[in-house]
Records
---
Amino acid sequence: MNDEQVAMDLIIHAGNAKSLAMEAIGAAKKSEFDEAKEKLRLAGESLQTAHVLQTEILEYSLGSSGVSMLMVHAQDQLMDAMTILAMAGEFMDLYKLVYTNIPAARRDA
């Protein structure tokens, strides 16, 4: 697999992880915690695949003299996905706490 294809695969998996994490937040906001948990699990799987690709990239490019802009973008997407996934878990916990302690809040979601 060439560098461009690996970078594109990294972008795809990181993007999927970000989208699923955002969907998890949306589900938690509607107090659909089982769905939110599943979306977060799927996001974690996509992020793990992206992380494996990143490791391959790093191992392969140790002797390389340059890094393409596409590869920089791919790495940026991975970092964004990792941040959003962590935040999605926190939002899910927060919504659960709010809805457990303030049942009337569910009607406004």
---
Amino acid sequence: MSETPLTPQQVLQQMLQHDKFTEWLGLKIDAVDIGYCKLHYTIKEEMLNGFHSIHGGVLFSAADSAFAFACNSHGMLTVALDVSISFTRAAKPGEVLTVEAKELHSGNRTGVYDVRTMNQNGELVAWFKGTAYRTSKKIELE
């Protein structure tokens, strides 16, 4: 058991080792740091709803992944306490969406995060707000 805390990049790599959902969604991580994650993905046909725009569940899932990577970047196992999302604009197949999670507050056990999904024109597609609970369990390399 190492006493040296993991870097945000090491935590991300540990999380991605078993995260088949992120791989399946096609999320590409652009940056990770303490309390921060930025990723992007391209909307595929199988991500569409009955009105030929991205399904809200896909937007939620991608934002939730960015949230998880940002809040676990401290090296402690962190889980969601409360999240909500507002959908502000439709997005269509082929569009590239960027998701950016930023820590607004980090307390002893809780953190508050702002996660925004933007299209390639810089327009807000979805706004996800999350509160996380940081457990006492350290994330360790396998």
---
Amino acid sequence: MLFTGLEHTALASPDPRRLAQWYVGTLAFRINYEYDGNFFVRAADGSMLEIIPSQGDAAATGMRTPGIRHLAIAVSDFDQAHEDLKAKNVKFLTEPINNQGNRLVFFADADGNILHLIARPQPLP
């Protein structure tokens, strides 16, 4: 197979170190590589984000404005993960909902990027 998947997704931040530390402290990612003010953070499943220095002002974004709208964070225990995030005072954008057997809630990272906590009992095909 020639194309094997997404190696990482990049987020531009006015303070990449602070945002990387948010992912470490809030979602138990780890900083696995750093260079010239850029930080790669890795989740337990091996997925990665690259956090790079931003330039200019951020454009206004919403749940359905064009472009990448959220990063979905998989969890094995929705209720426990939701309680953990509440204890860490994350900013929730919605209340938890059930959708086609899945449990989910939207929240924001330290820069306001939209994240989506999801427990999916049946993996997608």
---
Amino acid sequence: MRHLKAGRKLGMDTSHRLAVLRNMVTSLIEHERITTTDTRAKELRRIADKMVTLGKRGDLHARRLAMRVIREKRIAKKLFEEIAPRFAQKNGGYTRIIKIGRRHGDNAPMSLIEFSVPAPSPEGKKKAAAKEKKAEKKAKA
């Protein structure tokens, strides 16, 4: 019986599964959205949310723990400096899974996994800066 045994095996041995999930987390952080099967997305969500939590902590120990999983300094830097600050006011639920249908080859259920708070677009930054400037003028007047 599998009582109290969390996680899915995904049809792989342990080292293969961990390597696949590490690569998927790295890709998710790099591209901020990836397409994969439903079960892999559900497993990936667990690890990705932990990485964002480490990013929110931001101390040296958190960086070292994150580097155990991420393995690319450039991607870890993006996690700590760009992605984690977006979730400063949020206490979980950093990723969302959107079901997108079935894969043509083997009819496997596919999903899109992405961060729940989108990256600010360059246009959005300009609008926010303009809004902030307007608010400052109003406060001075």
